Hints:
single chain, 272 residues, alpha+beta, Jelly Rolls, 3-stranded antiparallel β-sheet, 4 helices
Amino acid sequence: MTLYDRFRKAQIKVHKSILHSRENVDLDEVTNVRKYDVCIMSDPYPHVVIPDFFKPTAYENLCSVFTEAMRGGLHDKRDYTLDGFHAFDIAYDGYTHSPQPTVDPRHPLSIFYSIEWNLFFSKLFNQCTTTETKVVFHYHPAGDKTGSVHHDHIERSPAISVPLSNGVIGYKPLTSISQSYTDLTRSSKQGAAPFQAIAILFYLLNDGWHEGDGGETGVYSADRATRLKVVPPINNTLFAFQTSLRSMHTFQTNRKNRHSIIQWLHAPAKLS
Length: 272
């Protein structure tokens, strides 16, 4: 790591510490977990699986937000301007919805955009992250195909930034998909875009899930071919991992509908 990288890392740490001191958010109020309760599994890459993550009221509130988004309907057109869920803009079965970033303490999603949340996962994986993040909802109707194995260690796709009052920058997709690909190519050439450094998957509304229902997240070896384990989409379970070129995973085909909230915490390009 260069001297500049060390300076930049220290600068980010100080910046987040200042923001954290101004924030009035406590994970203990809405979750059942703290860092000392969590065991990181290192094989095949650093990851955690945490059951019973949110307290009952917080979990139910998240379910309500997801259900409300579902009322907007399912749209096969890949258009981010539509209400509800729309088809992925990549060759991937299922639907996605991008909620509005918020730090309104009355909103169930505000915890995902807190500095407290950011610091918890950054410290857990000993990963330098900025205050930039993206949250999306995923819905896979029964019968969706197993996705392509991928690692998520990529540049943040071009998006509309939403600066929040606590210093966090949330992202929503660009409304023009053709424009997003153009901008992504440009940012890749410049090497300026931050990387997705930590991926978080939270499973909810999968009532009565049993082995054989599918919809798990498959964890693969670096060869992309060998599935080593699956993480079942059991309600109120959180699966998080540090991304790298080895963090291979994908959605597994399902016999029952599967719902999840996905989040990425970002790192500066040179520090990823």
